[in-house]
């Protein structure tokens, strides 16, 4: 670590605050000491060269060292008008020291220190994959029960529309938002790069427009303040006229490094390398693999990483993938179909696109509310997670719906997804495990402790209460609830089910072999050990 | 290529004949010129050192060069008593020349030539993956419609039992047999390695017993003569007492090279690296990957390669895997579940173990005949292939059943699988493709030409004849058959269905929107373009 010897604009900002630069100093000195929450954002601001092309010409990093000896090298980025920033989210409380390195003299060899303090309420840290490999939790161990939605270009809409979207989300059940960096539908913000002419394709891929990214960050940070994870989608195939996803490799690499340096310190950021990657004709599988390697190297915060397909599943076993992100509307119409994706990925699975609720004239956007909710439940029984969106709007054109631009939710699924989320939060930690899925029990939960059975559109009038389990551990007593997942009622069943051995594989209560059910669709039964 | 200068025992044997050596010559000379069928086995026999440990001490290869310039280097093997053999299956007709290389002077620099002639009837060459990536065909382009079975240790039983198994197979529908090299149940042949003492674990992994392998080859060749592919399983976890699957890495490598050199020239051989690989505790994933690399390098005939799991799916996208070999009894109870395995593997999928027909006291061996057949049909609709076996026997111990030892078939599924095979052979080339599986049509065949719908245990009395398809190509006329897959009847429906556009996605015949069905289980409907 070097001693301070250059001008510095040290500014420790609390997590969630956008990066406003302090005033410049003059002589070599150390940055002022500040504090930041653990998992918050410590932003350092510098003044440096503004001539030439700083995005290409200037490199800047800082190495952060904790009192415990943890050392993390963090890339910075150019924010225009001679301002450079480095954003770092400290994973440990305590004192941190840092020193910069740059090929620009004004940015090189600056140093400083700050203290990372205990997080305030509601800051649980970034979301990570659980030790068992199939679920998510925050860094402080709090389970994260994913209920996702998608508003592709919401952050690129007018201030009023963005405010409306955020107000909607505040009252909605969603805790993860899939959102594009580049616009896919009519948007207010459309120029991530500096324009070179009036045509859609006239822009300079080597010069970012900092205002575009500052605006995006503002939305990003507001989303985080609502406790919603931002699944930031880096490329998509829907804009061949502008061609932001058809850049040359060096431009793609620079873009990944830029967004990683700008956004990666925010603890609620996830990376989705692309939406429908296999519909981007200018990139082949080897390109995607390469871009993941670039992203891993560029992102010291090691945020969650995945990629979303249209036809050809990306191989989620590749080491840079943290969880599978799947588009498939039929896979979550059966818990075993869903569960198979875990067997292939050996990682958490999120069905990020399962066809949408709405009134689209296209089959990918005309689900009823019950059909949307059904997919979430089957996904849960399969030990996986599901994502929502909706296409409702007067024009029946999804571009102008929640899916495209955000705004208001018009569908009937969100309250039922809030109800589902509560069921999930009351359930096993870290998540619902499918129980012997290869034997078609259609049960999830935790063996010998918690069983959830879901009947989908079937309308059974009774259910044989047969639970898989061997040995004395299986001989438990359970109380039962009948859950109407659409009408959002939980009806306790009187008494308990006292399990005894039924055969080599199962237990049951000979005195109560069956449970009467209401003969309506979308019923679930929950059995919890007493 | 070198000129002949050593003693040689050249012997060109027709495909299917076991390798009997000719008498030895004396002075350096060329091997006599012979002929062999294309895709047959040209076996070269040599006399060389018998002292020391020839399995370890001596290496031997021959390089074969065709008139067209194809060059193939083929490893030989030691067959005991100073006899060495090299087996080569020529992929091209015409003249082939060869020359040997060895670290043993007596085996080095021998050369010869032979002619590969056109194959006789019934020799279609080895089975390969089709160009579309999801099916199988013989080298001459004939489709291979896999209907598999498993008799793990059949080839290790008495001559009488083996003859009984072969007689059974001659009348059975199966065209692929999964069979172990090492015994898993009570067997007559139990010593692939030279014994060093009376205990089960007392054997020398560096010395093969050639008699064991000659006996195995005899069975292998007889199986091939019936037109049945031999899916040779190289390791398995069921014999911890003998420990053949718990050898050291160098012993495993030597074993793979030995079986590859001995068996690999037979055109009907497939390699299954292991049965339930993940139940073999002495080997980890990296070991299996390594062993595949060894096998690829050892096998110039490039036979089909896969591996079979109990819990953890092996990643079938790995480059050395030619097709997925899956154990999962529930995955083939729904065509979409089956089809998902193709999406993950991007290769042909064979459900080699889907639970067995029989009277076992274990749930993995108590399917009824209809349940066994149902799995084959769902697998077909999913664009995949399925394997059979059965556990019937008086003791209800699967070890002594068809599954363990071969013998007689007692189940009710085989005639229905023969019926299914005929349906497959009359169907699209190279195989049945799932048609828009992600939209839950439950149809397979060939778009706008051939549709097969299967209803499983459902008993519908009618079916809406709605076919996916857009544009003028979809506006075809179809004749229909109602197929009773259990009673093995095909009932033609009078008249045709003349398709017109129904909506953006589907076509139907407004004059005949529905087809009446018999209200029995296990019904299929076949629509063929007229």
Automatic annotation (TrEMBL), chains A, B:
Keywords: Signal. Transmembrane segments: none annotated. Residues 1-26 form the signal peptide. Residues 439-527 form the DUF5605 domain. It comes from the Bacteria. Residues 35-103 form the DUF5060 domain. Residues 132-388 form the Apiosidase-like catalytic domain. Gene3D superfamilies: 2.60.40.3950, Glycosidases, Immunoglobulins. This is DUF5605 domain-containing protein.
């Amino acid at each position: 670590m070097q001693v301070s010897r250059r001008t510095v604009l040290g500014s420790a900002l609390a997590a969630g605050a956008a990066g406003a630069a302090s005033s410049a100093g003059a002589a070599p000195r150390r940055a002022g000491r500040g504090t930041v929450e653990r998992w918050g954002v410590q932003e350092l601001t510098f003044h440096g060269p503004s001539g030439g092309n700083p995005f290409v010409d200037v490199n800047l990093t800082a190495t952060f060292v904790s009192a415990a000896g943890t050392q993390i090298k963090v890339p910075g980025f150019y924010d225009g008008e001679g301002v450079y920033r480095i954003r770092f989210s400290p994973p440990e409380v305590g004192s941190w020291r840092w020193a910069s390195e740059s090929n620009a003299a004004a940015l090189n060899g600056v140093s400083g220190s700050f203290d990372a303090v205990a997080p305030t309420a509601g800051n649980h840290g970034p979301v990570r994959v659980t030790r068992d490999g199939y679920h998510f939790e925050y860094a402080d161990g709090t389970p994260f029960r994913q209920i996702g939605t998608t508003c592709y270009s919401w952050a690129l809409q007018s201030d009023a529309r963005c405010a409306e979207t955020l107000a909607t989300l505040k009252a909605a059940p969603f805790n993860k938002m899939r959102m594009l960096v580049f616009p896919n539908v009519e948007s207010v913000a459309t120029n991530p790069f500096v324009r070179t002419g009036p045509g859609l394709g006239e822009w300079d891929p080597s010069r970012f427009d900092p205002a575009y990214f500052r605006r995006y960050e503002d939305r990003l940070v507001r989303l985080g303040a609502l406790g919603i994870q931002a699944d930031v989608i880096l490329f998509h195939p829907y804009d061949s006229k502008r061609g932001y996803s058809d850049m040359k490799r060096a431009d793609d690499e620079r873009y990944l490094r830029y967004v990683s340096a700008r956004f990666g310190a925010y603890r609620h950021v996830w990376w989705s390398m692309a939406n429908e990657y296999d519909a981007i004709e200018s990139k082949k599988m080897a390109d995607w693999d390469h871009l993941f390697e670039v992203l891993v190297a560029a992102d010291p915060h090691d945020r969650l990483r995945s990629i979303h397909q249209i036809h050809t599943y990306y191989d989620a076993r590749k080491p840079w993938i943290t969880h599978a992100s799947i588009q498939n509307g039929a896979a979550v119409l059966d818990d075993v179909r869903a569960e198979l994706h875990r067997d292939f990925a050996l990682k958490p699975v999120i069905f990020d696109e399962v066809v949408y609720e709405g009134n689209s004239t296209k089959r990918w956007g005309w689900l009823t509310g019950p059909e949307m909710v059904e997919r979430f439940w089957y996904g849960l029984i399969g030990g996986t997670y599901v994502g929502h969106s909706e296409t409702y709007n007067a024009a029946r054109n999804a571009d102008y719906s929640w899916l495209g631009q955000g705004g208001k939710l018009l569908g009937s699924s969100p309250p039922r997804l809030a109800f589902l989320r509560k069921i999930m939060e009351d359930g096993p930690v870290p998540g619902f495990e499918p129980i012997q899925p290869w034997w078609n029990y259609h049960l999830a939960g935790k063996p010998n402790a918690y069983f959830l059975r879901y009947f989908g559109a079937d309308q059974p009038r009774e259910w044989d209460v047969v639970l898989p389990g061997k040995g004395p551990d299986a001989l438990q007593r359970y109380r039962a609830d009948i859950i109407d997942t659409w009408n959002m009622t939980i009806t306790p069943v009187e008494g308990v089910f006292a399990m005894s051995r039924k055969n080599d594989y199962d237990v049951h209560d000979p005195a109560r072999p069956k449970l009467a059910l209401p003969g309506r669709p979308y019923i679930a039964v929950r059995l919890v050990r007493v």
